[in-house]
Amino acid sequence: MNWLYLLLSPVDESMDFFELTTDPIDITNVTRRVVPPECGATVTLDGYARRFTKDKATGEIRETLYLEYEAYEAMALKEMETLVERVKGEFEISNVGIVHRTGKLDIGETSVVISVAAPHRKAAFAACEWLIRELKRTVPIWKKEVYADGEHWVEGESA
């Protein structure tokens, strides 16, 4: 009976969310929080710390020991809110969840999860791609790559 009630209840607009955390991100939790009953697809991006990074300027491949993320929290959250509003105006999607981690991340740990629910998968894929690109370009979150022989702050990507 509860199951039927959930399927027939109106969609709760508060299913959109955006967060910063210093804790490990539970990918399944982020994904399931955006799923309304009228959707047929959820696309989720799990961005995580990789061991080897190719320098865009020199082509050199360096081994990363770990990453550190910092954010201007109030501004980052405001920008994330703006991205959610914009993506919902540009794509036929229902709900969006974005969680970005700050602090030290070891190789393999998740740094960002973006999950988009939509009635159809094409819009969910396109919106998720747009969100990660714009998040890197506009949200004040900075990444430092730490190597055995030094460190490097990485600037956001351009569109």
Describe this structure in words.
The chain has four helices and nine strands, in the order H-E-H-E-E-E-H-E-E-E-H-E-E. It is α+β, with helices and mostly antiparallel strands and 159 residues long. The strands form two sheets. Strands 3, 4, 6, 8 and 9 form a five-stranded antiparallel beta sheet that branches. It is elongated and about 50 Å long. It starts with a helix and ends in a 5-residue tail after the last strand.
Considering the chains and any ligands shown, give keywords for the structure.
alpha+beta; 159 residues; 4 helices; 31% helix; five-stranded antiparallel β-sheet; Aldehyde Oxidoreductase, domain 3
Q: How would the blueprint of this fold be written?
A:
Blueprint: H1 2-8, E1 17-21, H2 27-33, E2 41-48, E3 52-54, E4 61-71, H3 73-90, E5 95-101, E6 103-106, E7 110-118, H4 121-138, E8 141-147, E9 150-154
Parallel strand pairs: 1-5
Antiparallel strand pairs: 2-7, 3-4, 4-6, 4-8, 5-7, 8-9
